[in-house]
Amino acid sequence: MAYFVKRFTGLITKVRLLSHIFSKYHQKRYHSYFTAHIIIETIKSVNDAMFENDKTEFDSEMTNLPEFPSDFGPNPFIIDMQKAARQNDNFRTTLWTGDHLQVTLMNIPVKGVVGLEVHSDLDQFLRVEEGLGLVQLGTSKLSMDSQYLVFDNYSIFVPAGIWHNIVNIGNQPLRMTSVYAPPHYEWGTVHPTKADSIQNDES
């Protein structure tokens, strides 16, 4: 909480500074590139300083969260998703489950696969946080004719009714964030391995 109070206070300071700068700009009517450049550089300097000073405090507060992994839903929650995904060593870890949406973290081993699947009643969003993958999409199980390479920061949108699979073709674990709307798994679901996931689906 202290972090966000400090950020808000810093924002107020920034607004006041910008107000002062633009006031001077308007009074002198310096319509020039030089003046605009000074304004931009001032904004950048203030912003960089705020983030640099707050980073250590923010990281400290984040470490006070409950032991990972844990399902933090349905409470309001803020986290560095990329960092969380890189810390996840389970095939699937449910991070947040609400009434209408669920966020999970996935770790696909080298040469491993998510598994061919289709969801008839939900949409899915996936984001690659780290690694290299091959996405396979199709309108039927026997027609997976669309394939795409994905890596860090790439996102995949899978509408309900579309068959899909992701293969780790890199030389390191493929770490992803997966979002289901509505939720697909029970609150707090953790699958250490793909075998555990298959067993859960069959039960």
Automatic annotation (TrEMBL):
<dbReference type="InterPro" id="IPR014710">
    <property type="entry name" value="RmlC-like_jellyroll"/>
</dbReference>
<dbReference type="InterPro" id="IPR011051">
    <property type="entry name" value="RmlC_Cupin_sf"/>
</dbReference>
<dbReference type="GO" id="GO:0016853">
    <property type="term" value="F:isomerase activity"/>
</dbReference>
<dbReference type="InterPro" id="IPR013096">
    <property type="entry name" value="Cupin_2"/>
</dbReference>
<keyword id="KW-0413">Isomerase</keyword>
<feature type="domain" description="Cupin type-2">
    <location>
        <begin position="105"/>
        <end position="180"/>
    </location>
</feature>
<protein>
    <submittedName>
        <fullName>Mannose-6-phosphate isomerase-like protein (Cupin superfamily)</fullName>
    </submittedName>
</protein>
<dbReference type="InterPro" id="IPR052538">
    <property type="entry name" value="Flavonoid_dioxygenase-like"/>
</dbReference>
<dbReference type="Pfam" id="PF07883">
    <property type="entry name" value="Cupin_2"/>
</dbReference>
